[in-house]
């Protein structure tokens, strides 16, 4: 059969997928669905990296099923809320007051950084690296 005799488009009867002739090859007429664009924060990026490196099958399945973006968005929203909640709980248990912000700024800042680090460590272990 010569190139001029090949059909420009064919449909596979078994799968129903149509193909278009490009040069010597038939290319499937498939388009990936549009995904929502999101800006990943550090929790979303950490979860993505963890999935790629440690849960390759889970990552691939989410990528194929087009659920990865929603998963990362949900994880980062939950992580942010959880970190803030844990910081507030730890702050209540500590001797930290708002007056210290004005009177002893270094102590207040150091204590708040420690509380934030504790909260982030908890969230990373509970949510990101599971």
Radius of gyration: 26 Å
- Poorly predicted residue ranges: none
Largest sheet: 3 strands, antiparallel
SSE string, helices as H and strands as E = EEEHHHHH
Overall helicity: 55-70%
Distance between the termini: 56 Å
Share of β-strand residues: 5-15%
Based on Cα principal axes, name the global outline. Answer: rod-shaped
- Count of helices? 5
Domain count, please report it: 2
Order of strands in the sheet with most strands: 1-2-3
- Structural class designation: mainly alpha
The tally of beta strands, per DSSP, is 3
Multimer state: single chain
Mean pLDDT: 91
Quick recap:
The protein is mainly α and 130 residues long. Helices cover 59% and strands 9% of the residues. The chain has a three-stranded antiparallel beta sheet, with no helix packed on it.
Write the topology of this structure:
Elements: E1 9-11, E2 18-22, E3 25-28, H1 42-54, H2 56-64, H3 68-93, H4 99-103, H5 105-128
Antiparallel strand pairs: 1-2, 2-3
Helix pairs in contact: 1-2, 1-3, 3-5
Question: What characteristics describe this protein?
Answer:
single chain; 130 residues; 2 domains; three-stranded antiparallel beta sheet; 5 helices; 9% strand; rod-shaped
Question: Could you characterize what this model shows?
Answer:
The protein has 130 residues and is mostly helical. It has 2 domains: 1-31, no CATH class; 35-128, no CATH class. 59% of the residues lie in helices and 9% in strands. It has 5 helices and 3 strands, in the order E-E-E-H-H-H-H-H. It has helices at residues 42-54, 56-64, 68-93, 99-103, 105-128; strands spanning 9-11, 18-22, 25-28. It has a 3-stranded antiparallel β-sheet, with no helix packed on it. Strand 2 (18-22) and strand 3 form a beta hairpin. Helix 1 (42-54) packs across helix 3 (68-93). The longest helix has 26 residues, at 68-93. The radius of gyration is 26 Å and the shape is rod-shaped.
